[in-house]
């Protein structure tokens, strides 16, 4: 009979994912405020359901001994099909087409693996890439949107812990758990994953089973993406990209073997829940996305290391019979064979190796944990302003009246400077006089500026809905949450400017970063609603997908100011106001300078911003429409998005130079940092310094290039002011002052070689 300690260890190993889940929930409940509230638990469950379908599908494919890297792209395809076809087919028809797309792609993957005998890694990597391009082509790089919120409201009604969307994912989980454990098909998949040859000898149609596994994975991934997109009323070409790695990590943590023949969809689901709960709890603590990544990596590393250690131990003791060894000891039997001493020595060496490997695993996990704890400890709000800057008096130490203290704080904020010496609060106060709206802007050509009316003039004439009433009173101790769409040097400076204003008023600022993932930002909105701050400032991940999030905050009675990236017109009724750079105005101003430098003729190309973002359109068609009006002899040869990556931009620009030769006279870029590095490198490699270059933004890279004469001009987009202005407006509204304008633009300026010194050192 096995010792009780061995039985306990074996049980703990089998139940490790459940114990890990319980431990994380217990730890977060103890340290994270509001973690176990119904609203936050509902957010965790909805976050889990978003990736659960893909996790089930991947688990089935891995059990069959294969790999599917196309699950994220299939989520995108399912979402794009559902949102794009809903106006024509209705939700049932749109979901049916999404399911058929998933089945078709899964069948293609399965046939290439089983019939063409191509590695599943290569096949699904290829389909992932193709589907990504197809999604961009279908949506023209933008985000698809459905204006009717009724179905989304039924999928995720407010106030329910288990919403219909969560219940549907649980139903799928139970169905496929029964399929794997209670049917001959499921047992056949395990046998194939363990040994495909043995399964074939047993008479199983191995190819058919593998094909079916890929089709199930495709179906579930597409349906999961369709349901998630329906809950947001929108879909963009990259919505599933960030789901691939978390799903793979969760499935591995859940115990599914990459070699096949082992796994459980239930345990994969618990692992997805565990990771979502971990990230949610860290977010409740105010940890940044980098800390969340480290923590998730620590969990994955610890599970993999523990599994590897057990495998090494099992291999070391395989074939030994402990009961016989115990019998020898009990009877005091000794072996006099000369080999005994050698065997004993070998056993000792093996035990030392086991301990060494275990210690190495523990040390590795400990190092990761230490890094996570250190990162969490330094993740604090910026400290108070230096004593040389104006400060407000504390509530306890000030003898001035409330009105005088407020006036003093306002004066202090208006006197603040950015690191380049420019005023921190810098707003364009020009009148907002929009031209009459065309009857159908979408029917106009893309080169017609009126085609973009609803984007360029979004929010100018909007009627606000359900606006909460300002609480008025002192600002000290008020809580503001900033939902930032990603980590980037620009947004670091943005937060620095916001924090300066918050410190001056005594406002408590919490910043949550979505890492450019709309699923994460959706969960953060739920978290904000659960925590009930005094106001939310949001920089959208996506100008279209943010609309239901703004609506949700509005319905919860939480005032919201949108910032930096402007939502589409359907989202503006739910905001107090919007603040940020006037991208259309800046780009038109840049276009006029570009035309002047190009002598109003010649061919040009455009490096576009990230697909789905507002600058993707404004920094492209602001240029195209303005040049068509003022310089009809200038011709746009091509426009491409390069993800703002230097290497990819260099390749694209090199291709332009080769293809168009002397016809290419100018290039404008939506980004003067990473993308501009690629532009400059390609031009240097081709020895074409004659190409006129301009860009949006005022990074250190861009301004150094302007100073050196490589860039003719860049637009001024002061990052610190971009963050400071919404916080100033938040303070005004919270103290009872009216917000008078529907949008607040930063001042528009061009930076050229003549004035670049005024804007240095660069803010980012």
From TrEMBL:
MF annotations from Gene Ontology: transmembrane transporter activity
GO cellular component: plasma membrane
Record bears the keyword Protein transport: no
Membrane-topology descriptor: Multi-pass membrane protein
Compartment(s) where it occurs, according to its Swiss-Prot or TrEMBL record: Cell membrane
Domain of life: Bacteria
Keyword hit for Cell inner membrane: yes
Keywords: Cell inner membrane, Cell membrane, Membrane, Transmembrane, Transmembrane helix, Transport
CDD domains: PBP1_ABC_sugar_binding-like (cd01536), TM_PBP1_transp_AraH_like (cd06579)
Cross-referenced Gene3D superfamilies: 3.40.50.2300
Record-annotated Periplasmic binding protein domain positions: 481-737
Protein name stated in the entry: Periplasmic binding protein domain-containing protein
Species this chain originates from: Capsulimonas corticalis
């Amino acid at each position: 009979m096995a010792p009780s300690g061995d039985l306990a260890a074996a049980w703990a190993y089998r139940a490790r994912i459940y114990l890990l889940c319980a431990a994380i929930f217990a730890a977060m409940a103890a340290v994270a405020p509001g973690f176990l509230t119904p609203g936050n638990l509902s957010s965790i469950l909805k976050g889990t359901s978003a990736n659960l379908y893909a996790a089930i599908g991947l688990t089935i494919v891995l059990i069959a001994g294969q790999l599917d890297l196309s699950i994220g792209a299939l989520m995108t395809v399912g979402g794009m099909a559902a949102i794009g076809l809903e106006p024509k087919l209705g939700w049932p028809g749109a979901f049916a087409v999404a399911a058929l797309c998933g089945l078709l792609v899964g069948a293609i993957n399965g046939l290439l693996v089983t019939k063409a005998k191509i590695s599943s890694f290569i096949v699904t990597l290829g389909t992932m890439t193709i589907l990504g391009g197809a999604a961009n082509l279908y949506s023209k790089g933008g985000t698809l949107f459905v204006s009717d919120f009724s179905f989304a409201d039924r999928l995720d009604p407010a106030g329910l812990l288990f919403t219909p969307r969560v219940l549907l994912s649980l139903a799928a989980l139970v169905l496929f758990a029964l399929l794997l454990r209670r049917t001959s098909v499921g047992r056949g998949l395990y046998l194939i994953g363990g040994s495909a040859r043995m399964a074939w000898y047993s008479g199983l149609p191995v190819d058919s089973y593998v094909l079916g596994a890929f089709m199930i994975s495709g179906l579930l991934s597409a349906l999961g993406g369709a349901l998630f997109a329906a809950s947001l009323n929108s879909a963009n070409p990259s919505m599933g990209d960030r789901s691939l790695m978390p799903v793979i990590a969760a499935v591995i943590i859940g115990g599914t073997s990459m070699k096949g023949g082992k796994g459980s969809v239930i345990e994969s689901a618990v692992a997805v829940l565990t990771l979502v709960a971990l990230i949610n709890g860290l977010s409740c603590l105010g940890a940044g996305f980098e800390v969340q990544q480290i923590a998730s990596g620590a969990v994955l590393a610890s599970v993999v290391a523990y599994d590897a250690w057990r495998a090494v131990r099992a291999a070391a003791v395989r074939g030994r019979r402990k009961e016989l060894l115990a019998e020898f000891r009990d009877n005091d039997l000794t072996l006099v064979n000369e080999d005994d001493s050698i065997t004993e020595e070998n056993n000792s060496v093996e035990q030392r190796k086991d301990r060494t490997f275990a210690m190495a695993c523990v040390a590795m996990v400990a190092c990761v944990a230490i890094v996570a704890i250190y990162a969490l400890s330094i993740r604090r709000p910026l400290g108070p302003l230096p004593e040389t800057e104006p400060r407000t008096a504390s509530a306890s130490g000030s003898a001035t009246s409330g009105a005088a203290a407020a006036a003093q704080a306002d004066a202090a904020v208006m006197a603040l400077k950015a690191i380049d010496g420019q005023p921190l609060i810098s707003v364009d106060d020009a009148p907002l006089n929009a031209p009459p709206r065309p009857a159908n802007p979408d029917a106009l050509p893309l080169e017609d500026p009126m085609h973009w009316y609803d984007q360029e003039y979004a929010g100018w004439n909007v009627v606000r809905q359900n606006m909460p009433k300002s609480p008025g009173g002192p600002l000290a101790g008020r809580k503001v949450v900033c939902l930032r769409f990603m980590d980037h040097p620009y947004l670091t400076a943005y937060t620095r400017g916001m924090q300066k204003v918050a410190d001056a008023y005594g406002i408590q600022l919490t910043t949550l970063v979505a890492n450019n993932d709309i699923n994460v930002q959706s969960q953060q909105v739920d978290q904000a609603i659960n925590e009930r701050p005094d106001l939310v400032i949001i920089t959208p991940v996506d100008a279209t997908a943010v609309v239901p999030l703004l609506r949700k905050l509005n319905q919860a009675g939480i005032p919201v100011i949108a910032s930096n990236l402007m939502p589409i017109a359907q989202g503006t009724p739910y905001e107090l106001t919007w603040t940020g750079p006037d991208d259309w105005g800046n780009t038109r101003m840049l276009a006029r300078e570009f035309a002047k430098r190009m002598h109003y003729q010649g061919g040009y190309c455009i490096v576009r911003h990230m697909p789905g973002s507002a600058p993707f359109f404004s920094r492209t068609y602001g240029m195209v429409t303005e040049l068509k009006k003022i310089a009809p002899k200038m011709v746009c040869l091509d426009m491409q998005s390069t993800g703002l990556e230097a290497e990819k931009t260099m390749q694209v620009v090199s291709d332009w130079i080769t293809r168009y030769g002397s016809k290419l006279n100018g290039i404008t870029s939506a980004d003067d940092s990473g993308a501009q590095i690629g532009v400059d490198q390609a031009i240097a490699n081709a020895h074409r310094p004659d190409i006129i270059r301009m860009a949006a933004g005022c990074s250190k890279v861009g301004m150094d290039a302007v100073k050196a004469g490589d860039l003719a001009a860049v637009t001024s987009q002061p990052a610190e002011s971009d963050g400071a202005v919404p916080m100033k407006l938040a303070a005004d509204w919270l103290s009872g002052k009216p917000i008078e304008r529907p949008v607040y633009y930063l001042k528009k300026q061009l930076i050229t070689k003549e004035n670049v010194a005024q804007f240095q050192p660069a803010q980012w």
